[in-house]
Amino acid sequence: MTDQPAPAGPDTAEQAVVRFMRGVRLQHDRVRDQWVIQAPERAFVPDPVATEILRLVDGQRPVSAIIDDLAARFDAPRPVIARDVLALIAELTGRQVLTT
Amino acid sequence: MNAMPPAAPPPMSLLAELTHRCPLQCPYCSNPLALDGRESELSTAEWLRVLDQAAELGVLQVHFSGGEPMARPDLPDLVRFAAGRGLYTNLITSGVLLTEANFRALADAGLDHVQLSFQDVDAAPAEKIGGMTGAQVKKLAAARIVVADGMPLTLNFVIHRGNVARIPRMLDLARDLGARRVEIAHTQYYGWGLVNRAALMPTRAQLDEATRAVEDARARLGPALAIDYVTPDYYADQPKPCMGGWGRRFVNVSPAGRVLPCHAAETIKSVAIPDIRTASLGEIWADAPLFRLFRGTDWMPEPCRGCALREKDWGGCRCQALALLGDAAATDPVCARSPAHARITEILDSLPDAPPPLVYRRFGNAPA
Description:
The complex is a heterodimer.
Chain A: H1 10-15, E1 19-20, E2 25-29, E3 34-39, E4 42-44, H2 48-54, H3 63-73, H4 78-94, E5 98-99
Antiparallel strand pairs in A: 1-5, 2-3, 3-4
Helix pairs in contact in A: 3-4
Chain B: E1 13-17, H1 44-57, E2 61-65, H2 75-84, E3 88-93, H3 100-109, E4 113-118, H4 123-130, H5 135-149, E5 153-159, H6 167-177, E6 181-186, H7 191-195, H8 197-200, H9 204-221, E7 226-230, E8 250-253, E9 259-260, H10 281-287, H11 289-293, H12 310-313, H13 318-325, H14 342-349
Parallel strand pairs in B: 1-2, 1-8, 2-3, 3-4, 4-5, 5-6, 6-7
Antiparallel strand pairs in B: 8-9
Helix pairs in contact in B: 1-2, 2-3, 6-9
Pfam family, one (chain A): PqqD
Pathway (chain A): Cofactor biosynthesis; pyrroloquinoline quinone biosynthesis
Organism (chain A): Gluconacetobacter azotocaptans
């Protein structure tokens, strides 16, 4: 712990470990051959980019490792991927899908 | 397999109504007026087969409901089987039978979420509606057990003219208990709710106040508490997209094994009600006349057929058209474009100032 909390910039955000909230999960829908987010009273289909990100959310690895993994596999600069990943995590945290 | 008609997309949700038995007697219950007795209920083995067929068909979420589903001692077995088949499991309960021990059994079986009903914030009016003394303290205890475990909890409040003024306190209660979601759902006027419509329907002014209370709470409480708000469609100009379209997303299996496109569909008498004891869920979903009756848009009369909203509201509610106009294939009369829309205005204009006595939901208590 430091005396003063650091501003929650991208570096801090990348150190966080995110996980699905209890009662929320990513699941492959075999019948429709698509990934779905199962949540209380709703199920919804993430877009392909969100799906790639969410498949790496395991409650173990930090966000930076998720970004590194995607940067190694997809043809896009790391800062672009980092921006997408952090934006998705912020959005899905607000929608009670993910938590840190 | 024989040649099948063009396949309907598979259902997303199964409402498994395990029993119509319930310690509560709420006069707006969504169960039909003709309640199934214990002797007619599907067995454990039959429910396991329904769950297996549902998962195979493409159902993603199963909602264990009733009646009071916790009155079935096999509930943990059903939850465990459903969870093992990848189904998202939701328990819709009054909470009055929930204890630390039986909740633990459900959580260990893989239950994902609990939706807990409340009749009101204060015990006296809540227990007058529910017809069970001592229910409120049991419900509060149930909520605390679920939240302490960390399982997501939704509180459900059914709204009527007697409790509409207390919505702000209902939302505060949901927040204080640590619920993740709350449903502020105005009574839907079918079955028991329709019988009690004159006693339950709020005024337009009460509805407006309720809507303001929800909007205020959304601004005040932020995203930590998701609020689902359902209005009574009598005050709307457009019908609700009932069940997301007939036979399109949702399938309901009644305690006795009747398979329905919605809770109220047994009121439609023009075709046979499919029975899970004599056909599979997949066969019924694809082929049963009841499911094909109002699927899609081909069945629609004008003005629905030519309406730009026909695939948004799917023609509204068939059971409402039947209940209010005597014709399940008519345009839902809550639609301002319906030739029978004046019927709604007449009903609202003739609501009594003093509510008549409630007709409680219990076996043998339905009016003839």
